């Protein structure tokens, strides 16, 4: 018994002497969000990521917005250096936008960002667009309106879709709740989708998935390539599941920016539709 | 380790050639009143103890002493002497009267070392449950096992067993021979086993006998009472969240049936209280179990039938997201065993066992629904021969099993539009195994080599497409026990085990989300080498052991995706990554096993790590359920015939998790950037439970008691999940708060139990 207790004691001492190492290190990088649509010039924002214990407020965000980068977009033949603009209503409030070079369906587009000795590059394409056959509302309780769409998937092409909506009082298009779709589940079929409004931000507390009667709603129906789909899928997973104990999330988003960066540069084949919700 | 199997097979074959200077005696133990065989009677020659099997048979090798002490609960002990020429005899035990039996049950509990040191399992008897506080008024066998060394808790709300640094999918839980794929109801407080249907539990953590199909961590073999009931007996209990009942019905002298059922009614009382205070989430949950057992004897043939069905229905509404998560899971088990002596020293046992498991996960928002189903059907036939030879016991057997596994059947419905996922992916697995286990008794040493050869063929079918894979697997094991004297022994076990079915660890919290996938070409069988060295000591009133273990696991799995990946039927295996695992640890156990006050102290010190090429750039990281320290103290005090008290204190290091180290903003959302995998640790887990029972006085046959149990006495908030919550406006300021979800506060409950 005596020997046993000695042994017991020694093992406990050894156990408690173990050194705890924390290898988790925060690494500063650029976060790029850029896109180009058919018929429109490119739009790019650049920010820095923030260490976990930094506060999130307008001052801190201002520090992390990159305002003096050289942002060049090219289609392989023509290129354009984007111009920086301020818009206090947006986050980040500074963005880069083109003017002469507009997107065309089926073409490739290259992005280059040069800033403080770092060069970030990426490429994308604008896939063929897709059209909606029908948009309609179904009445919900409390005079709310549920938005629905119908479209035909092209059986002979691999398609990825992303859907946004915007009502008259909203500044920007907001992703629908479950906004990304892969046609592997409905290849070649005529698809009916119920669109739920997405939350603009995960900092927002209240939100409703429906529109109100008399709302003027614009639907942005976009196609994108596989890379973009994977990025936005991982993004949606993080936004929706990070605080859900049944699901959780712990993976980095699957971006396509080369260099010390994460984020996405994507091309959208886009069509816009407008509808007014019934009384 | 490479030479292990060669060594094992040499020992195995040599053993049959030699004869040692020992006397091997076999016997049959019967009830003197009705000639029924007595199972699990203790037979001791003063040096070692063996138990009689389900036919009342035992075999013991004797050194010098030709006197045996035979004892069993409910019977008067017997001292039996015989001549050295005698090899076999039938021994009769006389039943005790009821009053004596009561005293015995209260004072004499199972002796640990009798089974643990001479074999490689921990025997836990259903009757021992009364020594541990019942949780929410429910005596539960799996919760009781978690108080033993080497069995880690998964944290609050997690029913999984984490044995010696392994995952919850590396245990095989058998209920009367049938595999139970999800042995717990939600939150781990209730296992699927009603205590009225648990008689004996054998827990194997190392040196797995070859008659069990391999698992990397443990085998938990639960059996019901197989005795034929001779009178109408009943049990019932009703508490604040569940009610349980069972009744034994004798149909003839040779045939009896036991039926029982249990149901919770938390949706009536418990959850409405939670839902009123927690506006952010609304929970609903209930479960039920139904059991039927039947024992039948015809001559020397003994039959035992066991049927079980149980189901859980859980839902949680995340109000802020207008989301409803639903989970339902159910187990079915049906088994029939047939035991008969073929000769005076040969017993044949045949079993037929069916298992079924279904898991259904569903998220809905308004009219949209995303879901995934998973199911297993399992059929097993085995034949098992035991030879009680001179100086040794040999077990030989064959087993055939067939499984149908559908790991994930996704569904996505948007309003009336159902997405097309194509035909279900189904695996058809056929396994054939032969096995042999041999106990060889030397003067001071017992050696038990064993070997199992398994052939597994797998057909992976999806619509008209199918592919085949097959595996030959050899699993050797060796147990060597050396007796220094009658109180002190050294036990060494070494084994290699394969596991051909994998539980996908998809959930990042501790909720169960059980999806099983078999081994096939893309996910090869995982395997383990384990070495365990233990020292076992007995005193008059105490017993203790120290057991060191080292495990080297290969091809263990992680799931590289969320549950969303399962809603993609095409290539689920693409999200499965394989790596290595290492576990090193030591278990301490000491128990005061006599007297009115009995106490058990169990401590496990261990380190469980993993290496995956795809995670942390191939660097070693701690296992999610790595528990450097795990302590359990249980104590019970029987004040008198009326009052009994018990308490449990449990402590464990927190789970590891992957914490965010940075964040950024994209499209107005705050996105987390995560640090190294499992680099952060949740707060330590600890909790105190307490029970007090008052036994009422009744006339003869009727017994009843009122039980007050308090779960989590000092109201520790043990978090199961840590996350960050953002509130505010990005263009002004956002409040970030770290949230920890803890489930179970202090919870007193009253239970009334009755037995007749």
From TrEMBL, chain A:
Pfam families noted in UniProt: DUF4249 (PF14054)
Q: Organism's domain of life?
A: Bacteria
- PROSITE patterns per UniProt: PROKAR_LIPOPROTEIN
- What is the designated name of this protein? DUF4249 domain-containing protein
Species lineage, top-down? Bacteria, Pseudomonadati, Bacteroidota, Sphingobacteriia, Sphingobacteriales
From TrEMBL, chain B:
Cellular compartment(s): Cell outer membrane
Q: Does Membrane count among this protein's keywords?
A: yes
Q: Which InterPro entries does the UniProt entry name for this protein? A: Beta-barrel_TonB_sf, CarboxyPept-like_regulatory
Q: Keyword annotations for this protein? A: Cell outer membrane, Membrane, Receptor
List membrane-spanning regions: none
Keyword Nucleotide-binding in the entry? The reply is no
- What Gene Ontology cellular component terms go with this record? cell outer membrane
Q: What is this protein called?
A: Outer membrane receptor proteins, mostly Fe transport
């Amino acid at each position: 018994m005596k020997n046993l207790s000695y042994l017991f004691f020694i093992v406990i001492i050894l156990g408690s002497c173990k050194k705890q190492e924390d290898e988790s290190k925060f690494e500063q990088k650029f976060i790029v969000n850029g896109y180009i649509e058919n018929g429109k010039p490119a739009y790019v924002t650049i920010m820095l990521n923030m260490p976990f214990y930094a506060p999130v407020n307008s001052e801190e965000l201002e520090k992390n917005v990159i305002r003096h980068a050289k942002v060049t977009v090219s289609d392989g033949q023509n290129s354009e250096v984007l111009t920086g603009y301020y818009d206090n209503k947006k986050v980040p409030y500074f963005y880069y936008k083109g003017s002469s070079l507009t997107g065309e369906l089926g073409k490739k587009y290259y992005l280059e960002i040069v800033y403080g000795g770092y060069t970030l590059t990426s490429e994308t394409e604008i896939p063929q667009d897709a059209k909606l056959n029908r948009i309609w509302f179904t009445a919900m309780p409390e005079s709310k309106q549920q938005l629905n769409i119908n479209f035909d998937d092209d059986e002979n092409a691999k398609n990825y879709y992303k859907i946004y909506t915007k009502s008259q009082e909203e500044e920007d298009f907001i992703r629908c709740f479950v906004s990304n779709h892969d046609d592997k589940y409905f290849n070649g079929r005529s698809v009916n989708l119920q669109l739920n409004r997405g939350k603009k931000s995960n900092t927002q507390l209240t939100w409703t998935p429906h529109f109100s009667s008399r709302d003027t709603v614009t639907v942005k129906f976009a196609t994108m390539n596989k890379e973009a789909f994977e990025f936005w899928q991982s993004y949606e997973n993080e936004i929706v599941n990070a605080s859900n104990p049944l699901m959780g999330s712990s993976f980095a988003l699957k971006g396509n920016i080369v260099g010390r960066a994460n984020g996405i540069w994507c091309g959208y084949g886009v069509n816009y539709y407008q509808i007014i919700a019934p009384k | 380790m490479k030479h292990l199997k060669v060594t094992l097979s040499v020992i195995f074959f040599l053993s049959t050639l030699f004869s040692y200077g020992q006397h091997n005696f076999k016997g049959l133990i019967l009830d003197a009143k009705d000639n029924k065989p007595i199972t699990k009677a203790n037979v001791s020659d003063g040096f070692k103890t063996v138990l009689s099997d389900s036919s009342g048979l035992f075999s013991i090798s004797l050194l010098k002493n030709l006197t045996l002490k035979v004892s069993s609960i409910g019977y008067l002990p017997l001292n039996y002497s015989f001549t050295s020429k005698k090899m076999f005899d039938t021994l009769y035990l006389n039943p005790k009267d009821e009053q004596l039996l009561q005293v015995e049950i209260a004072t004499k509990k199972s002796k640990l070392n009798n089974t643990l040191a001479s074999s490689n399992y921990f025997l836990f008897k259903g009757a021992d449950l009364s020594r541990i506080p019942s949780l929410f008024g429910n005596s539960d066998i799996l919760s009781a096992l978690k108080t033993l060394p080497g069995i880690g808790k998964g944290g609050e709300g997690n029913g999984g067993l984490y044995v010696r640094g392994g995952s919850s999918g590396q245990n095989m839980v058998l209920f009367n021979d049938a595999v139970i794929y999800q042995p717990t109801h939600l939150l781990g407080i209730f296992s699927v086993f009603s205590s009225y249907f648990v008689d004996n539990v054998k827990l194997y953590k190392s040196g797995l006998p070859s008659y069990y199909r391999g698992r990397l961590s443990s085998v938990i073999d639960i059996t019901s009472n197989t005795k034929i009931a001779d009178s109408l007996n009943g049990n019932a209990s009703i508490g604040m969240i569940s009610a349980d009942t069972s009744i034994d019905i004798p149909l003839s002298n040779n045939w009896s049936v036991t039926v029982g059922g249990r149901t919770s009614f938390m949706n009536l009382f418990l959850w409405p209280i939670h839902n009123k205070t927690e506006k952010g989430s609304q929970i609903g949950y209930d479960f039920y179990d139904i059991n039927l057992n039947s024992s039948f004897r015809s001559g020397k043939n003994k039959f035992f039938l066991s049927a079980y069905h149980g189901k859980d229905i859980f839902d949680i509404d995340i109000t802020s997201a207008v989301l409803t998560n639903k989970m339902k899971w159910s187990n079915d088990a049906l088994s029939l065993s047939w035991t008969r002596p073929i000769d005076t020293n040969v017993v044949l046992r045949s079993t037929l066992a069916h298992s079924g498991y279904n898991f259904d996960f569903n998220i809905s928002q308004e009219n949209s629904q995303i879901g995934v189903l998973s199911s297993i059907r399992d059929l097993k036939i085995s034949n098992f021969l035991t030879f009680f030879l001179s100086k040794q016991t040999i077990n030989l057997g064959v087993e055939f099993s067939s499984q149908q596994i559908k790991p994930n059947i996704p569904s996505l419905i948007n309003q009336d539009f159902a997405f097309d996922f194509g035909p279900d992916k189904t695996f058809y697995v056929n396994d054939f195994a032969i096995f042999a286990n041999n106990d060889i008794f030397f003067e001071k040493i017992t050696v038990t080599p064993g070997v199992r050869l398994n052939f597994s063929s797998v057909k992976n079918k999806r619509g008209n497409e199918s592919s085949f894979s097959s595996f030959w697997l050899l699993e050797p094991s060796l147990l060597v026990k050396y007796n220094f004297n009658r109180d002190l022994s050294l036990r060494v076990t070494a084994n290699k085990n394969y596991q051909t079915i994998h539980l996908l660890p998809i959930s990042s919290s501790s909720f169960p989300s059980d999806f099983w996938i078999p081994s096939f070409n893309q996910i090869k069988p995982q395997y383990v080498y384990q070495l365990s060295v233990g020292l076992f000591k007995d005193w008059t009133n105490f017993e203790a052991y120290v057991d060191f273990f080292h495990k080297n696991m290969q091809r263990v799995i992680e799931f590289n995706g969320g549950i969303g990946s399962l809603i993609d039927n095409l290539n689920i295996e693409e999200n499965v990554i394989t790596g290595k695992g290492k576990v090193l640890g030591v278990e301490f156990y000491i128990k005061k096993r006599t007297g009115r006050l009995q106490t058990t102290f169990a401590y496990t010190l261990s380190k469980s790590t993993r290496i995956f090429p795809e995670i942390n750039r191939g660097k070693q990281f701690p296992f999610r359920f790595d528990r450097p320290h795990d302590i359990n103290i249980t104590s019970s005090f029987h004040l008198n015939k009326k009052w009994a008290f018990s308490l449990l204190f449990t402590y464990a290091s927190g789970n590891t998790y992957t914490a965010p180290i940075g964040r950024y903003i994209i499209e107005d959302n705050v996105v987390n950037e995560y640090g190294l995998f499992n680099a952060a640790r949740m707060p330590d887990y600890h909790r105190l439970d307490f029970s007090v029972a008052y036994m009422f006085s009744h006339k003869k046959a009727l017994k009843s008691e009122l039980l007050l149990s308090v779960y989590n006495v000092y109201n520790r908030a043990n978090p199961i999940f840590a996350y960050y919550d953002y509130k505010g406006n990005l263009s002004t300021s956002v409040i970030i708060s770290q949230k920890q979800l803890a489930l179970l506060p202090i919870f007193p409950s009253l239970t009334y139990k009755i037995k007749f």
